[in-house]
Amino acid sequence: MIKASAYTFKILRYDAMKPESSPCFSTYKIRVIPGLTVLSVLIRIRDEIDGTLSFRSSCRSAVCGSCAMVINGKLDLACRTQVAAFDTDTIILEPLPNFEVIRDLVVDMTPFWTMYEKVQPYLIRHSPVPEKELPQSEAERLRIDQYVNCILCACCYGACPVLARGPDSDYMGPAAAVKLERFVLDSRDERPAGALDVVNDEKGVWACDTMFHCIDACPKDVRPTDAIVGLRKAMVKNRFQKMLGKAKNEA
Amino acid sequence: MLDHDILIVGGGLTGLRAAVGLCDRFNVGLISKVYPTRSHSIAAQGGINAALTNNPDSRDDSWEKHTFDTIKGSDFLADQDAAEIMCKEAIGIVYEMEHWGCPFSRFPDGTIAQRPFGGAGYPRTCYSADITGHVLLNTLYERAVAKGVKIYPELFVAGLCIEEGQCHGVVALDMKTGELIPVSAGVTFFGTGGYGRVYQHSTNALINTGSGIGMAYQAGLPLKDMEFVQFHPTSLIGTNILMTEGCRGEGAYLLNNQGERFMQRYVPSAMELAPRDIVSRCIQTEMDEGRGFEHPLGRYIQLDLRHLGSKKIIERLPGIRNICIDFIGIDPVLEPIPIMPCQHYSMGGIDVDKRCASELPGFYAGGECACVSVHGANRLGGNSLLDTIVFGKLGAQAIGEDLEDGVPRPDEKAILRLKDKVEEKFRRLAAPGAEKPYRIHAELGAVMNEKVGIFRTREELEQALDKLIELKRRYGDVGVSSPVRYMNYELTAALELEAMLDVSHTIILGAILREESRGAHFRTDFKTRNDGDWLKHTIARMGDDGSPVLSFKDVTITRYQPTERKY
């Protein structure tokens, strides 16, 4: 038989609608069998112990990006983190950093999506559409592979030391850079060089301190810093070409 | 009050495709209870079917052959005109998604890669590794952003407003503020997904409660073919996370505890790539007859990928490998994957025609929440992603046609009356109650699993019905812990539970009534298909006492006369 072990869950609670209250930890003792994930324990706590606990969840298989949070100091998806993965019987859960908390583990994702939309996160083409598919080689497809894997969970955004300096930083964050680079590197994309201007400043790719926290935090092995460095290189190259009078037609 | 010409509920593939098709001509709003990229479409892995003939082994493929496979797979319950339309549209749909930037995997010649899937005569499943739903959903969300579609994330629809034979819109809960928002719309389109979570064991996301189906049914719309529930052959034991059919498409074996590829004994011609209903029954039989493996998380069968080699596994099935490592600590390069069948897909749904139109002017539905029917009694793998996008597109076209003479004027008073009713429901749920929603949900899931599963009998189905009626009664005593309405997931779960009970009621009654075995509905007391009596769709309407009243509807047959379904 599987033996359950006793765990203590400490969860940071806060309700933004009650600004007079301050964040504090609720403690739950719960018996957990090996193999259970943090998300499944959260669901049990909400169902059986405390119906007021708020957290997001959907796919429970690490593909939808709903349940990013801080688990014993580490940013990850609650659904793919095993309770038994830590050398301790105390699990501390906190909401994603660098966001305003709405309630408990639920944060306001609006700034994240605003930055996402800012980079024109879609394929841009001007050439006529062929009858069949646009050809793309296996190597060209592989070039965008890591960026395609992004699930927009915002672990990288929560881990970013630049964003941690406060809301005034206005930094685009790692995920938006990943999305932009995913299209810039796509052999089918025809965005003009000027499309990078929107992130070619101290609030865009030049704000990154290349501390690589985003890479550590990504649950899908995406390397946002690669995207940021790639975009910087493209910008320098564009500028160089412009100086040589070879800039792409901006039309 | 929010006001739109067209209101789309659901931010998955169907809803987004419909929105993209309509937003240039109409004032469109899209409501989703989650951020759209959290929708369950994201979890589809294996691929989308279209007869592109890119695979060297599929040069002779055609949309007609795709149609035939779909109809045969449906055990001849699909409406053949609708299946033809879907399979014909498939080719253009896949190219369109590619033109919009969808990063499909590629063959060496630069064309979209295609793999074999169950029940298909040719390898026609277009894919992007094992994250096809992820790339399709992201592409359509990107398209919606590009076109400036008005999206309301985290608005939870709490009621559908139908009065005087017209649909006027919905009442929605803003989950962030807790405010109840009336939304008026000339046309409402549901792309709200399936009901997997009425089963204890399901591959579905936690958000797949079927509340959209239930809400439409409670508002008076008929549901179709609800007894047809797909059980996927291969879900990971414990968490029931999907292990894509693409594993078997790439050549994986199913093995029992004798180390035998047991499909040899059942369907030697198709082996592991027989359709899902058949493979699930074979696996269940092996386990029932003592040839499964025992594990603390449950009995299982092995899905063995090892002979494919690490290169192919890492290239084609990287997500599967990661899920196995993260969730059960097994690397499929080195060890077989422990799997069991479980609920996966809802063939039935809101009764609509091939234009996604319901019987009620101004209300349309598409994708998994709807039943056109293109999947009949059993859906083929790779046809659900297809269904979602094709019928998102065709639904949008139909709405555009139907609104040529102007947008119907919704009755705002009717919506405000519904808002009062929803307020009342909220107050009732916030009052102290003896029952907690999760307990009723858990008991519902257990009884659906045990008594309304892969093999069914009248006796067990009637036991399930008794239990369902008990749960419905107990639902009257449900109370939630807090009256707060913002980010109160216990409250939204309680609201959805009512719909889940109603949806389950239609599944159970349909299964009791249908005294034959067809596709995914297998009655051990009526083991064969009976076209004489049962080549017809089941229609369920909510009766005056809240129980379903069943009737029937003809199946559309065009060129394919029903024959014995052999593989």
Can you give a write-up of this model?
The complex is a heterodimer of chains A (251) and B (567). Chain A has 251 residues and is α+β, with helices and mostly antiparallel strands. Chain A has two domains: 5-107, Ubiquitin-like (UB roll) (Roll); 110-243, Alpha-helical ferredoxin (Fumarate Reductase Iron-sulfur Protein, Chain B, domain 2). Helix content of chain A is 29%, strand content 14%. Chain A contains eight helices and seven strands. Chain A has a five-stranded mixed sheet with strand order 2-1-5-3-4. In chain A, strand 3 (68-71) and strand 4 (74-77) form a beta hairpin. In chain A, helix 2 (110-118) runs parallel beside helix 6 (174-184). Among the domains of chain B are: 232-342, Flavocytochrome C3, Chain A, domain 1 (Alpha-Beta Complex); 432-554, Fumarate reductase/succinate dehydrogenase flavoprotein-like, C-terminal domain (Methane Monooxygenase Hydroxylase, Chain G, domain 1). Chain B has 16 helices and 21 strands. Chain B is globular. Chain B starts with a strand and ends in a 13-residue tail after the last strand. The mean pLDDT of chain B is 97.
Looking at this protein, list some descriptive labels.
heterodimer; A: 251 residues; Ubiquitin-like (UB roll); Fumarate Reductase Iron-sulfur Protein, Chain B, domain 2; five-stranded mixed beta sheet; two-stranded antiparallel sheet; 8 helices; 14% strand; elongated; B: 567 residues; Flavocytochrome C3, Chain A, domain 1; Methane Monooxygenase Hydroxylase, Chain G, domain 1; globular
**Amount of beta strand of chain A:** 5-15%
Poorly predicted ranges of chain B (pLDDT <50, ≥5 residues)? none
**Through-space gap between termini of chain A:** 69 Å
Output the CATH topology of the largest domain in chain A: Fumarate Reductase Iron-sulfur Protein, Chain B, domain 2
Mean pLDDT of chain A: 94
* Average pLDDT reading of chain B: 97
State the assembly state of the protein chains: heterodimer
- Class of the largest domain in chain A, according to the CATH hierarchy? Mainly Alpha
Report the strand count of chain A: 7
Number of helices of chain B: 16
**What is the name of the CATH superfamily of the largest domain in chain A?**
Alpha-helical ferredoxin
Provide the helix percentage of chain B.
25-40%
* Interface with most residues: A-B, 61 and 63 residues
Widest beta sheet: strand line-up of chain A: 2-1-5-3-4
Could you say what the CATH architecture of the largest domain in chain A is? Answer: Orthogonal Bundle
Could you state the order of secondary-structure elements of chain A as H and E? Answer: EEHEEEEEHHHHHHH
